[in-house]
Write a structure and sequence with these properties.
This protein has one domain: Alpha-Beta Barrel (TIM Barrel), CATH 3.20.20. It has an 8-stranded parallel beta sheet with strand order 1-8-7-6-5-4-3-2. The protein is an alpha/beta fold. The longest helix is centred in the C-terminal third of the chain and has 22 residues. Helix 8 packs antiparallel against helix 9. The protein is globular. 48% of the residues are buried. It is built from 11 helices and 8 strands. Helix content is 46%, strand content 10%.
């Protein structure tokens, strides 16, 4: 990428048939629907893509299908997280070879009892940076159980050539973003937030330049970021206020199921199946989700009809 990536970079859900098989044609339709929401990039194989229930073969197939189908219309970010450094490096090389614009990775972890030292975290990111020539986004999220300090993150940005984007999802993300931007300076090319944009205004105030949400309401959240970065903070606040009921319901009640439920209702995919041990959404939660989605007239709610 010749210019820094900013804006809205949603995670694409992985669609399954009702029997749990990967829906390859549904994956293509998901990508088209998200692109039609006016996004700046798409992330695949992330946690909200249910990467943790995919086999290695399924993962490779979905990466190939996604990169071939998007075909350069927007940049594609491929998530490569794994505890094994060798596997992460192999995933990074494969993503670059297929045309990914960026890779995203969490620090290595395998439950709270198997978390490496900061030296181990640094060494894994260094191995990936040495193996590829595309940017790396560091995902700093509670799921890993790893505490990555601002000095460590700033050091990685300063010393590892391709580590330049950061997705902050930890508690008090705005303060950590501000501290990282101050510590890392010009080496922090892409400070981003996540968590469905529930803290987006605070994170924009802290200096973030984009967000990685789900694919649920990108056309609306993108307006927040574009307004803010253009200097119209009042418009950004008004738009965030409009989006906040759905943002909050997705973040606190639905999780990764929200996008799939809305996309099924909108004819994008044929099933909102999530793989066990994940459970379907309750009818009560689903009803409120669809009501809030309808209030915003979401593209995903009507795309396939």
């Amino acid at each position: 990428m010749k210019t820094p990536l900013t804006g809205i970079l949603p995670v694409a859900p992985t669609p399954f048939h009702d029997d749990g098989r990967v829906d390859e044609e549904g994956m293509r339709r998901v990508l088209d629907c998200i692109i039609d929401q006016g996004v700046d990039a798409i992330c695949i194989l992330a946690n909200y893509s249910e990467q943790f229930v995919l086999s290695d073969e399924e993962r490779a197939t979905l990466m190939r299908i996604s990169l071939e189908h998007v075909a350069g219309r927007v940049p594609v970010i491929v998530t490569i997280s794994h505890f094994s450094t060798g596997i992460v490096v192999d995933r990074a090389k494969a993503a670059q070879a297929l045309g990914a614009s960026m890779v995203m990775m969490m620090p290595p972890y395998h439950g709270v009892g198997l978390v490496p030292s900061e030296a181990g975290i640094y060494e894994q990111f260094r191995a990936v940076s040495d193996a590829i020539s595309i940017p790396i986004m560091v995902q700093d999220a509670p799921l890993s159980g790893c505490q990555m300090s601002v000095p460590l993150l700033a050091r990685m940005a300063r010393e590892l050539e391709n580590v330049s984007y950061f997705k902050m999802e930890m508690p008090f993300a705005a303060d950590k973003l501000a501290a990282l931007i101050e510590a890392g300076g010009k080496d922090i090319i892409g400070p981003f937030d996540g968590e469905e944009a529930v803290t987006l205004l605070a994170d924009l105030d802290a200096g973030c330049t984009g967000t990685m949400t789900s694919g649920l309401q990108c056309e609306h959240i993108g307006v927040i970021i574009r307004s803010y970065l253009a200097g119209d903070k009042d418009a950004a606040l008004a738009q965030w206020t409009k989006c906040l009921p759905l943002i909050n319901h997705e973040n606190r009640q639905c999780g990764l199921r929200a996008c799939k439920v809305v996309m099924k209702e909108g004819g994008v995919i044929g099933s909102d199946h999530v793989r066990h041990p994940l459970k379907p959404m309750t009818p009560r939660t689903r009803e409120r989700l669809l009501q809030l989605a309808g209030d915003l007239d979401l593209i995903a709610l009507k795309w396939g009809k």
